[in-house]
Amino acid sequence: MAIPFIIPLVLTAAGGLAIGALSRQPEINRLKEQVRVLQREIETLRKAMQEQQRQIDELKIRYSTLKAWNFAERQRTRGMTRGSLILHYGLRDYVELTVAQSRGKALEGDDLRFFNAFNVMVNDQPLGEEEKSFVKEYVTGRHRYQIDNLIPMNEQDRDALVHLVGAA
Amino acid sequence: MHLIWFLPYLVKYLIVAVLLGGVIGLIFPPIGGVVFLLLLIGGVGAAWKDAGKRRRAHEQQGEAEGFDQALRSVQNSFRQK
Protein backbone atom coordinates (compact mmCIF):
# COMPACT_ATOMS: atom_id res chain seq x y z
CA MET A 1 0.00 0.00 0.00
CA ALA A 2 2.75 2.33 1.01
CA ILE A 3 4.91 1.47 -2.02
CA PRO A 4 3.36 4.12 -4.32
CA PHE A 5 4.30 6.75 -1.75
CA ILE A 6 7.77 5.37 -1.05
CA ILE A 7 8.93 5.12 -4.69
CA PRO A 8 8.52 8.87 -5.44
CA LEU A 9 10.21 9.67 -2.15
CA VAL A 10 13.19 7.41 -2.94
CA LEU A 11 13.41 8.78 -6.47
CA THR A 12 13.31 12.37 -5.19
CA ALA A 13 16.02 11.64 -2.62
CA ALA A 14 18.21 9.89 -5.20
CA GLY A 15 17.68 12.76 -7.66
CA GLY A 16 18.54 15.28 -4.96
CA LEU A 17 21.75 13.41 -4.14
CA ALA A 18 22.74 13.20 -7.79
CA ILE A 19 22.04 16.90 -8.37
CA GLY A 20 23.94 17.77 -5.19
CA ALA A 21 26.95 15.70 -6.27
CA LEU A 22 26.89 17.15 -9.79
CA SER A 23 26.55 20.71 -8.55
CA ARG A 24 29.66 20.23 -6.38
CA GLN A 25 31.64 18.70 -9.22
CA PRO A 26 32.92 22.01 -10.73
CA GLU A 27 34.06 23.05 -7.24
CA ILE A 28 35.84 19.69 -6.73
CA ASN A 29 37.46 20.03 -10.17
CA ARG A 30 38.63 23.54 -9.29
CA LEU A 31 40.14 22.25 -6.03
CA LYS A 32 41.80 19.32 -7.80
CA GLU A 33 43.37 21.86 -10.12
CA GLN A 34 44.46 23.86 -7.08
CA VAL A 35 46.10 20.75 -5.63
CA ARG A 36 47.83 20.17 -8.98
CA VAL A 37 49.10 23.75 -8.82
CA LEU A 38 50.29 23.09 -5.25
CA GLN A 39 51.98 19.90 -6.45
CA ARG A 40 53.72 21.80 -9.24
CA GLU A 41 54.74 24.43 -6.70
CA ILE A 42 55.67 21.95 -4.00
CA GLU A 43 59.18 23.38 -3.89
CA THR A 44 57.71 26.86 -3.47
CA LEU A 45 55.53 25.61 -0.61
CA ARG A 46 58.53 23.95 1.01
CA LYS A 47 60.61 27.11 0.58
CA ALA A 48 57.78 29.31 1.93
CA MET A 49 57.58 27.14 5.04
CA GLN A 50 61.37 27.14 5.46
CA GLU A 51 61.40 30.93 5.16
CA GLN A 52 58.63 31.15 7.76
CA GLN A 53 60.63 28.87 10.03
CA ARG A 54 63.70 31.09 9.63
CA GLN A 55 61.71 34.22 10.47
CA ILE A 56 60.13 32.57 13.52
CA ASP A 57 63.52 31.36 14.78
CA GLU A 58 64.94 34.86 14.31
CA LEU A 59 62.02 36.41 16.22
CA LYS A 60 62.38 33.86 19.02
CA ILE A 61 66.08 34.66 19.39
CA ARG A 62 65.28 38.39 19.45
CA TYR A 63 62.57 37.79 22.07
CA SER A 64 64.85 35.76 24.33
CA THR A 65 67.71 38.26 24.12
CA LEU A 66 65.60 41.31 24.94
CA LYS A 67 66.02 42.30 28.58
CA ALA A 68 63.11 42.36 30.98
CA TRP A 69 63.34 46.13 31.40
CA ASN A 70 62.73 46.52 27.68
CA PHE A 71 59.24 45.15 28.37
CA ALA A 72 57.30 46.99 25.65
CA GLU A 73 59.64 45.81 22.87
CA ARG A 74 59.80 42.34 24.41
CA GLN A 75 56.02 41.99 24.42
CA ARG A 76 55.80 43.36 20.89
CA THR A 77 58.38 40.81 19.71
CA ARG A 78 56.50 38.01 21.44
CA GLY A 79 53.35 39.20 19.65
CA MET A 80 55.19 39.25 16.31
CA THR A 81 56.32 35.66 16.86
CA ARG A 82 52.75 34.67 17.69
CA GLY A 83 51.50 36.44 14.53
CA SER A 84 54.05 34.58 12.36
CA LEU A 85 53.08 31.29 14.00
CA ILE A 86 49.39 31.91 13.36
CA LEU A 87 50.11 32.30 9.66
CA HIS A 88 52.49 29.33 9.77
CA TYR A 89 49.79 27.00 11.15
CA GLY A 90 47.14 28.71 9.03
CA LEU A 91 49.06 27.73 5.89
CA ARG A 92 49.17 24.14 7.14
CA ASP A 93 45.41 24.06 7.80
CA TYR A 94 44.75 25.66 4.41
CA VAL A 95 46.84 23.07 2.54
CA GLU A 96 45.20 20.21 4.48
CA LEU A 97 41.72 21.54 3.73
CA THR A 98 42.57 22.02 0.04
CA VAL A 99 43.70 18.40 -0.20
CA ALA A 100 40.66 17.15 1.77
CA GLN A 101 38.27 19.01 -0.55
CA SER A 102 40.00 17.76 -3.68
CA ARG A 103 39.26 14.25 -2.35
CA GLY A 104 35.57 15.08 -2.25
CA LYS A 105 35.14 16.14 1.38
CA ALA A 106 32.62 18.97 1.69
CA LEU A 107 33.65 21.67 4.13
CA GLU A 108 31.15 23.17 6.51
CA GLY A 109 30.85 25.96 9.05
CA ASP A 110 34.08 27.42 10.39
CA ASP A 111 36.29 25.19 8.20
CA LEU A 112 34.63 26.55 5.07
CA ARG A 113 34.74 30.15 6.29
CA PHE A 114 38.43 29.80 7.18
CA PHE A 115 39.27 28.18 3.85
CA ASN A 116 37.55 30.92 1.84
CA ALA A 117 39.11 33.71 3.87
CA PHE A 118 42.62 32.24 3.76
CA ASN A 119 42.28 31.57 0.05
CA VAL A 120 41.50 35.25 -0.49
CA MET A 121 44.53 36.24 1.60
CA VAL A 122 47.14 34.05 -0.06
CA ASN A 123 45.88 35.11 -3.47
CA ASP A 124 46.73 38.68 -2.55
CA GLN A 125 43.16 39.94 -2.55
CA PRO A 126 41.84 42.38 0.06
CA LEU A 127 40.19 40.80 3.11
CA GLY A 128 38.02 42.60 5.70
CA GLU A 129 39.25 42.98 9.27
CA GLU A 130 36.41 40.79 10.57
CA GLU A 131 37.45 37.87 8.38
CA LYS A 132 41.10 38.40 9.23
CA SER A 133 40.24 38.25 12.95
CA PHE A 134 38.24 35.11 12.31
CA VAL A 135 41.23 33.46 10.57
CA LYS A 136 43.44 34.29 13.58
CA GLU A 137 40.86 32.98 16.07
CA TYR A 138 40.31 29.80 14.05
CA VAL A 139 44.02 28.98 13.82
CA THR A 140 44.73 29.97 17.44
CA GLY A 141 41.84 27.77 18.59
CA ARG A 142 43.23 24.75 16.71
CA HIS A 143 46.91 25.20 17.64
CA ARG A 144 46.67 27.08 20.94
CA TYR A 145 49.39 25.12 22.75
CA GLN A 146 51.99 25.57 20.00
CA ILE A 147 51.17 29.25 19.48
CA ASP A 148 51.13 30.16 23.18
CA ASN A 149 54.43 28.35 23.68
CA LEU A 150 55.97 29.69 20.45
CA ILE A 151 56.54 26.23 18.95
CA PRO A 152 56.76 26.11 15.13
CA MET A 153 56.15 22.98 13.06
CA ASN A 154 59.08 20.60 13.16
CA GLU A 155 60.75 19.19 10.08
CA GLN A 156 58.73 15.97 10.26
CA ASP A 157 55.45 17.92 10.26
CA ARG A 158 56.62 19.98 7.28
CA ASP A 159 57.70 16.88 5.38
CA ALA A 160 54.38 15.18 6.18
CA LEU A 161 52.52 18.18 4.77
CA VAL A 162 54.60 18.24 1.59
CA HIS A 163 54.08 14.47 1.27
CA LEU A 164 50.31 14.94 1.73
CA VAL A 165 50.24 17.39 -1.18
CA GLY A 166 52.46 15.16 -3.29
CA ALA A 167 50.24 12.12 -2.72
CA ALA A 168 46.91 13.94 -3.26
CA MET B 1 55.95 41.95 33.34
CA HIS B 2 52.46 42.41 34.71
CA LEU B 3 53.90 43.82 37.93
CA ILE B 4 55.92 46.49 36.11
CA TRP B 5 52.72 48.01 34.72
CA PHE B 6 50.77 47.31 37.91
CA LEU B 7 52.85 49.65 40.10
CA PRO B 8 52.34 52.91 38.12
CA TYR B 9 48.62 52.18 37.80
CA LEU B 10 48.44 51.48 41.53
CA VAL B 11 50.07 54.85 42.23
CA LYS B 12 47.47 56.48 39.99
CA TYR B 13 44.59 54.91 41.92
CA LEU B 14 46.32 55.67 45.23
CA ILE B 15 46.49 59.37 44.33
CA VAL B 16 42.80 59.34 43.43
CA ALA B 17 41.95 57.58 46.72
CA VAL B 18 44.03 60.05 48.77
CA LEU B 19 42.51 63.08 47.04
CA LEU B 20 38.90 61.91 47.20
CA GLY B 21 39.28 60.46 50.71
CA GLY B 22 40.95 63.72 51.83
CA VAL B 23 38.28 66.00 50.33
CA ILE B 24 35.42 63.89 51.78
CA GLY B 25 37.32 63.62 55.07
CA LEU B 26 37.48 67.42 55.28
CA ILE B 27 33.72 67.72 54.84
CA PHE B 28 32.60 64.56 56.72
CA PRO B 29 35.60 63.53 58.85
CA PRO B 30 34.23 60.14 60.02
CA ILE B 31 33.73 58.69 56.53
CA GLY B 32 36.84 60.10 54.83
CA GLY B 33 38.96 57.12 55.95
CA VAL B 34 36.31 54.60 54.89
CA VAL B 35 36.07 56.15 51.41
CA PHE B 36 39.87 56.12 51.14
CA LEU B 37 40.02 52.42 52.08
CA LEU B 38 37.21 51.44 49.69
CA LEU B 39 38.81 53.35 46.82
CA LEU B 40 42.17 51.78 47.59
CA ILE B 41 40.74 48.24 47.60
CA GLY B 42 38.90 48.88 44.32
CA GLY B 43 42.02 50.55 42.92
CA VAL B 44 44.17 47.45 43.47
CA GLY B 45 41.85 45.33 41.28
CA ALA B 46 41.48 48.06 38.67
CA ALA B 47 45.26 48.62 38.51
CA TRP B 48 45.84 44.89 37.99
CA LYS B 49 43.27 44.85 35.18
CA ASP B 50 44.74 47.97 33.52
CA ALA B 51 48.24 46.46 33.70
CA GLY B 52 46.99 43.31 31.94
CA LYS B 53 45.35 45.40 29.19
CA ARG B 54 48.52 47.44 28.72
CA ARG B 55 50.68 44.32 28.44
CA ARG B 56 48.29 42.71 25.96
CA ALA B 57 48.13 45.90 23.87
CA HIS B 58 51.84 45.62 23.00
CA GLU B 59 51.50 41.93 22.26
CA GLN B 60 48.42 42.42 20.08
CA GLN B 61 50.11 45.19 18.12
CA GLY B 62 53.08 42.90 17.53
CA GLU B 63 50.81 39.98 16.63
CA ALA B 64 49.14 42.00 13.86
CA GLU B 65 52.55 43.12 12.55
CA GLY B 66 53.97 39.59 12.64
CA PHE B 67 50.94 38.14 10.89
CA ASP B 68 51.01 40.73 8.08
CA GLN B 69 54.77 40.36 7.65
CA ALA B 70 54.51 36.56 7.40
CA LEU B 71 51.57 36.88 4.99
CA ARG B 72 53.57 39.19 2.70
CA SER B 73 56.44 36.72 2.79
CA VAL B 74 54.13 33.83 1.75
CA GLN B 75 52.51 35.94 -0.99
CA ASN B 76 55.97 36.88 -2.30
CA SER B 77 57.12 33.24 -2.31
CA PHE B 78 54.17 32.21 -4.46
CA ARG B 79 54.47 35.27 -6.70
CA GLN B 80 58.19 34.76 -7.40
CA LYS B 81 58.09 30.99 -8.05
How would you explain this protein's 3D organization?
The complex is a heterodimer of chains A (168) and B (81). Chain A is an all-alpha fold and 168 residues long. Chain A has one domain. Chain A has 7 helices and no strands. In chain B, α1 (2-27) runs antiparallel to α2 (29-80). By secondary structure, chain B is mostly helical. Chain B has one domain (2-80). The mean pLDDT of chain B is 87. Chain B has 2 helices and no strands. At the A-B interface, α2 and α3 of A face α2 of B.
- Spatial shape of chain B: rod-shaped
Query: What is the H-and-E element order of chain A?
Result: HHHHHHH
The helicity of chain B comes to over 70%
Low-confidence stretches of chain A: none
Quick one: biggest sheet of chain B? none
Approximately how much beta-strand content do the residues of chain A carry? under 5%
Q: Please tally the helical runs of chain A, counting DSSP H or I stretches of 4 or more residues.
A: 7
Biggest chain contact: A-B, 30 and 26 residues
Distance between the termini of chain B: 43 Å
Q: How many structurally independent domains of chain B? A: 1
Class from secondary-structure proportions of chain B: mainly alpha
Keywords:
heterodimer, A: 168 residues, mainly alpha, 7 helices, B: 81 residues, rod-shaped
Quick structural overview:
Chain A is an all-alpha fold and 168 residues long. Chain A has seven helices and no strands.
Topology overview:
The complex is a heterodimer of chains A (168) and B (81).
Chain A: H1 3-40, H2 42-65, H3 71-102, H4 109-122, H5 129-142, H6 144-148, H7 155-167
Chain B: H1 2-27, H2 29-80
